[in-house]
């Protein structure tokens, strides 16, 4: 499962069904919520994977997340 140009509009308007995500992503989301945090950074869901310009820009910021 990953964010792409093809599914960007759908996922940003309807959201992502967590049940459709891999178990490791579901576990990360659950752990984040249990820690009282609202957001979790998962690069496959936060960066458009087939957009090389976005990847170059966003991947350099991952260390700060």
From TrEMBL:
Residues covered by the Heterokaryon incompatibility domain: 15-63
PANTHER family: DOMAIN PROTEIN, PUTATIVE-RELATED, HETEROKARYON INCOMPATIBILITY DOMAIN-CONTAINING PROTEIN
Stated name of the protein: Heterokaryon incompatibility domain-containing protein
